[in-house]
Write a structure and sequence with these properties.
This protein is an alpha/beta fold and 320 residues long. It has a single domain (15-273), classed as Alpha/Beta hydrolase fold, catalytic domain (Rossmann fold). Helices cover 34% and strands 18% of the residues. The chain has helices spanning 15-26, 93-101, 121-135, 147-158, 176-182, 205-210, 233-239, 246-269, 274-280, 309-319, and strands spanning 48-56, 62-70, 77-82, 106-109, 136-145, 164-168, 188-192, 214-218, 283-285, 298-300. Strands 1-2-4-3-5-6-7-8-10-9 form a 10-stranded mixed β-sheet, with helices on both faces. It starts with 14 loop residues before the first helix and ends with a helix.
Length: 320
């Protein structure tokens, strides 16, 4: 979520609203007595092994992390996945579990340098790189939600071995993302929700406009909270203007996860896999504009297939 003071956080003249936000965030952004329980995570836990660990950040605080591994196959982490502003790794567990269920070991972490008054975005990027070196393969995909997407961009821009970035409703801050993206000659895939206060009214669009290689997908009807799995009632109370039926929320979340898994597999497989996008989703070419619903020179417009057999066949043929 966008912190108070971030572009798009419109609380000027409303100190009470800012105070309420601060008090709610200080509760841990998890759950509040009297509110409904968290949404259920979406994953394949029966086929996934969960491991916990901790490493020391350069600043001296402890970075707690969880590795989601498939029972068999690849064991070293291939994706480092980050949470949003003042959230936690538990909010990304559903996507991490789904990726592991697809055979992609994924690590989530708790940013220990983030504070209400300081997102510590550069340090968060450094911490993601630190975790990748500790538990991952040399070529890792950096991914993240909201402020975590910004940290993922920063991490990838500083890591010559990064394969790319998956950003989930990214929130920009002080042009950090724009500068990182402009220097990142690696593919970026961004999933974008509807413009609203908590995603700073889609200010992350600026990042995709600055990137040499970016593809995006607008998730129709998605709120900022839908990119967490599971999210909680506190996020929905702060970021959603009206209640939605549970079935509607679940459908949107499943669409987000399907696209995220598909994009991860595409990015990890490599540039030969670009043809998979044209086979599983239409492409529209055109200029990028700040008010575009899907700000990318190539916009995926059809539901993806998580079956990459076409992609793998393309890679094999390219090597002949």
């Amino acid at each position: 979520m966008a912190p108070p003071g971030a572009p798009g956080w419109r609380c000027r003249g409303r100190p009470i609203a800012s105070l309420i936000w601060s008090l709610l965030v200080l509760t841990g952004c998890q759950s509040i007595s009297g509110l409904p329980r968290d949404d259920k995570a979406s994953g394949e836990t029966a086929n996934v092994v969960i491991e916990q660990g901790s490493i020391r950040s350069a600043t001296g605080c402890d970075l707690d992390y969880v590795v989601h591994r498939p029972h068999s196959g690849q064991t070293q982490v291939r994706v480092v996945l980050a949470h949003g502003f003042m959230r936690s790794k538990e909010r990304m567990a559903g996507l991490a579990t789904r990726l592991a269920g697809r055979g992609i070991p994924t690590a989530t972490l708790d940013f220990c340098n983030m504070r209400l008054w300081d997102g510590a975005h550069r340090q968060n990027g450094d911490d993601m790189r630190l975790l990748a070196r500790r538990v991952g393969v040399p070529r890792v995909l950096y991914a993240g939600f909201s402020a975590g997407g910004l940290a993922a961009l920063i991490a990838a821009s500083l890591d010559p071995d990064a394969v790319g970035v998956l950003a989930l409703d990214l929130v920009e801050r002080s042009e950090l993302g724009v500068r990182a993206a402009a220097e990142l000659y690696k593919p970026i895939f961004g999933l974008v929700g509807e413009p609203a206060q908590c995603n700073a009214y889609n200010n992350g669009l600026e990042v995709y406009m600055a990137a040499p290689q970016a593809q995006t997908r607008r998730i129709a009807g998605a709120t900022h909270c839908d990119f967490e799995t599971p999210t909680d009632a506190l996020c929905r109370m702060l970021c959603e203007s009206a209640p939605r039926p549970v079935t509607s929320r679940n459908l949107v979340r499943e669409e987000i996860i399907d696209w995220a898994v598909w994009a991860t597999e595409m990015l990890l497989t490599g540039v030969d896999c670009q043809s998979a996008l044209s086979k599983s989703a239409s492409e529209l070419a055109g200029p990028i504009s700040a008010d575009s619903a899907t700000p990318s020179a190539k916009v995926a417009t059809a539901p993806p297939s998580t079956d990459l057999s076409l992609c793998l066949a393309t890679r094999k043929k390219a090597r002949l």
